[in-house]
């Protein structure tokens, strides 16, 4: 009834873009932080690409990854070399932008995701959240989703436990470990290519891609290892 193989007993959900609409907030915060940096660096070194940050940049280099990894990945794609102090400053600027928007506008959960969470809980499927964001607890609470979640692995866990970020499977493997199941008995739900890759690399029992982008995203998710791609979680429920 949940659109999952029979052996799945645990659902490991990414947060931003899967359960809540905060992926767009993250994307906008990254754009403002990177564009401010790029504008200040207008007289950059030879070979540096200082064009404004785009949605494609977000999807290819930042989406789903830990904050510092996202900064390094984007800058490398533009041929920009900086020290760790600059990387951390950009990451902090992004987080400040994100938190300001969160405080001003709040958080909304996708209605289809809430329907799926309710159906999952009613069916006895156990639920955890695995997110690269260090603001996972605040987002869950603001969206009214905390009561659904048995365990949370977030950006703080990744740092504290020295886990590799997505697309490495470490955070999802930790989520399965906390829930007491083998990866084969857990499903991964992701809206980021890096997260789909993490689910495939961890050999999880089922990897669900949630395409909130359109275009070639569904095709890219399938190529990255998604077993199924839907545009909303409630598409997995019986009609």
From TrEMBL:
Signal peptide residue numbers: none
Cofactor(s) the record lists: Mg(2+)
EC number, as in UniProt: 5.4.2.6
Catalytic reaction(s) noted: beta-D-glucose 1-phosphate = beta-D-glucose 6-phosphate
Keywords: Carbohydrate metabolism, Hydrolase, Isomerase, Magnesium, Metal-binding, Phosphoprotein
Pfam families (UniProt xref): Hydrolase (PF00702)
InterPro entries: B-phosphoglucomutase_hydrolase, Beta-PGM-like, HAD-like_sf, HAD-SF_hydro_IA, HAD_sf, PGP-like_dom2
GO MF annotation list: hydrolase activity
Family to which this protein belongs: Belongs to the HAD-like hydrolase superfamily. CbbY/CbbZ/Gph/YieH family.
Protein name listed in UniProt: Beta-phosphoglucomutase
